[in-house]
Amino acid sequence: MTVKTRRYRVHHLSRKIPCDEHDLLNKTKPYPFVPKFPVVEEEYFEWIDVLESAYQAAVQKRPYYFIELGARYGTWAARAGQAYRLLNPDGEFMTVGLEGDLIGYEWMVEHFKKNGFTEENSKAIHGILGTNSGEMVPIAWEDTTPRPAKTYTFLDMLRDVDHVDMIDSDVQGAELRSIVDVPGVMDALNKKVRYIHFGTHSGSIEVGLLDVFRKNHWAIRVFYPQYGKVQTPYGSVTMNDGALSVVNLRFIDSMMPI
Predict the structure, then answer these.
(1) What would the DSSP string read from start to end of 120-134?
(2) What is the CB neighbour count within 10 angstroms for residue 83?
(3) How many domains does the chain have?
(4) What's the CA angle centered on 53, arms 256 and 102, to 5 degrees?
(5) pLDDT in 10s for each residue of the chain, 258 residues
(6) Residue 243 phi, psi dihedral angles, 5° rounding
(7) What is the CATH classification number for the domain harbouring 120?
């Protein structure tokens, strides 16, 4: 595991603790390694959204489609695909990851392969989410050399699919403008997408996202603003990015109780 991997994983206890345990056990005794339940911290709400979206599709025996934007090494895309496959082993699914940093993209390709995914049920894309489709933008992650990445819009990501169970969006400040600055995006989200989880990254983005989704008949499931300690049903949590989870009320009648 490289130095860069360790830097990224220490940001969240839900990643750091199992990674540290895995490293220790790998040095002292052979597999199997059985991870524990996620730690209650900032990413706990993301876990809930991902697992619930997979559960809803699996129990209804329908195909599952998941998109992760700003995927790094495909963290949530892999978790979503594995969750659905565990619950519905014979079901069809597609998990998609979009990552602008070339090293992160290469890790995602490897991550998907190591999870047993194929071209039939996974797609890793080297690119970023933005407002100008096809534009090439130099991207660097930490101390990597900047390399050009292609810009994709929400419309690009949704064009060839009829339904999306969940989008996980962690695009470092482009969350709002990628929706409101591109005509037709909100209509496409309304028609095709059930759940969206955002890392919000700023107060102005939070205000804008809350406003646009409320106006378009989405329910706010979870909202905890960026920075600071918040009280949640699961205990006290210190937020960094901020978390916003929304559900499309157009699909609420087809959702199964948890």
Answers:
(1) TTEEEEEEEE-SSTT
(2) 22
(3) 2
(4) 170
(5) 333 444 545 455 556 666 666 566 666 666 665 667 788 888 999 999 999 999 999 999 999 999 999 999 999 999 999 999 999 999 999 999 999 999 999 999 999 999 999 999 999 999 999 999 999 999 887 657 889 999 999 999 999 999 999 999 998 878 899 999 999 999 999 999 999 999 988 889 999 999 999 999 999 999 999 888 999 999 998 988 889 999 999 998 777 665
(6) -135, 130
(7) 3.40.50.150
Contact 80, 91 (CB under 8 A): no
CB count within 10 Å of CB 64 equals 28
Residue type, 245: S
Does one domain contain both 126 and 246? yes
Q: Do 246 and 213 contact (CB within 8 A), yes or no?
A: yes
Q: Phi and psi dihedrals of 48, rounded to 5?
A: -60, -45
User: Domain limits at 20?
Assistant: 1-39
191 in the same domain as 161? yes
Taking 3-state DSSP, the helix, strand and coil percentages for the chain, each rounded to the nearest 5, stand at: 40, 25, 35
- Whole-number Å distance between alpha carbons of 97 and 119: 12
d(CA 147, CA 170) in angstroms, rounded, equals 20
Residue 177: strand, helix, or coil: helix
Residues 20, 216 contacting (CB under 8 angstroms)? no
Length of the chain in residues, anyone? 258
In Å, what is the CA distance from 175 to each residue of 14, 47, 208?
23, 19, 10
